[in-house]
Specification:
By secondary structure, the protein is of the alpha/beta class. The chain has one domain: NAD(P)-binding Rossmann-like Domain (Rossmann fold, 3-Layer(aba) Sandwich), CATH 3.40.50. Helices cover about 50% and strands about 15% of the residues. It contains 11 helices and 7 strands. The chain has a 7-stranded parallel beta sheet with strand order 3-2-1-4-5-6-7, with helices on both faces. Strand 4, helix 4 and strand 5 form a beta-alpha-beta unit. The chain starts with 10 loop residues before the first strand and ends with a helix.
């Protein structure tokens, strides 16, 4: 889809880059020539990903163990990264989520999600942003959200709150930092199953409710589709895109807006529609 050197000469940090969507985005960036930096809490996962990427792509991958909930650890990581070379791209991908009745949530449970998603994204954006601004260095911040940032998510309230906050940060920084040559964009993915998130958000009890049934395209997303979008948005080809939250969900969010009856209508055959016409239009 892209020239192999699309991100050549670009240095990118992906938070939560050792697993899941962050890992898929990182692999694509490495394939396209980026100098890749990944961070996360589990150093063994980061090392596994580093070795895998370097073996498969020939890229050089740098790893940093960092809990983005800790502002001092974040600042230390960025200071360490800058000793080698400045970043050109920041991908705020680190996340946490689980399903629960909101009335049963403890303050610790709420804080654990807000700390990773909202505070961590803000800490990283600020640590990267002031360095770019002080050096008159252009850059791009890509925030990975979910559609819950736009429409909410029952039984996932802390995550929806946090992602909505990051969406607001995306739009706010697009205006505040745009004159400095810093773009801020976001992706709001629909269902892109990953081993970790799927087990927390789709327990076996939901097996009778296939995920794809709520998506007009009748399938879930493929990681390559999201990774290509993430590569385009941080590339020079997207240099005039700023402040946008791009939804990639197969139309799922639009189906929800249309109402639950639409899901049944999509499976009606011609005979059913003929009967409905007789009832509703007298013919």
């Amino acid at each position: 889809m892209f020239e192999k050197d699309l991100l050549n000469g670009k240095r990118a940090l992906i938070t939560g880059g050792g697993t899941g969507l962050g890992k898929s985005i990182g692999r694509r960036y490495a394939e396209l020539g980026a100098d890749l930096v990944i961070c996360g809490r589990r150093i063994e996962k980061l090392q596994e990903t580093k070795e895998e990427f370097e073996r498969d792509t020939g890229a050089t991958v740098h790893v940093h163990q960092c809990d983005v909930r800790d502002p001092e650890a974040v600042e230390a990581m960025f200071s360490d990264i800058w000793t080698d070379a400045p970043l050109d791209i920041l991908v705020n991908n680190a996340a946490g989520n689980f399903i629960a009745q909101t009335k049963e949530l403890s303050h610790r449970a709420i804080d654990s999600i807000l700390g990773i998603v909202l505070h961590g994204s803000a800490y990283c954006a600020v640590a990267c942003g002031w360095r770019w601004i002080d050096a008159s260095h252009k850059g791009v911040i890509l925030n990975i959200l979910t559609v819950s940032a736009l429409y909410g998510a029952p039984f996932q309230v802390p995550s929806a709150m946090a992602k909505a906050g990051v969406a607001s940060m995306t739009r706010s920084l697009a205006v505040e930092w745009g004159p400095k040559g810093i773009r801020s964009v976001a992706i709001a993915p629909g269902p892109f199953p990953t081993e970790g998130a799927s087990s927390r958000l789709r327990p076996d009890d939901l097996d009778d409710f296939p995920m794809a049934d709520d998506i007009p395209l009748r399938r879930v997303g493929e990681h390559a589709e999201l990774s290509d979008l993430a590569a385009f948005l941080v590339s020079d080809q997207a240099a005039f895109i700023n402040g946008e939250v791009v939804v990639i969900d197969g139309g799922k969010s639009l189906q929800g807006i249309s109402g639950s009856a639409v899901r049944a209508m999509q499976d009606w055959d011609d005979a059913t529609w003929t009967q409905i016409a007789k009832k509703t239009r007298g013919r």
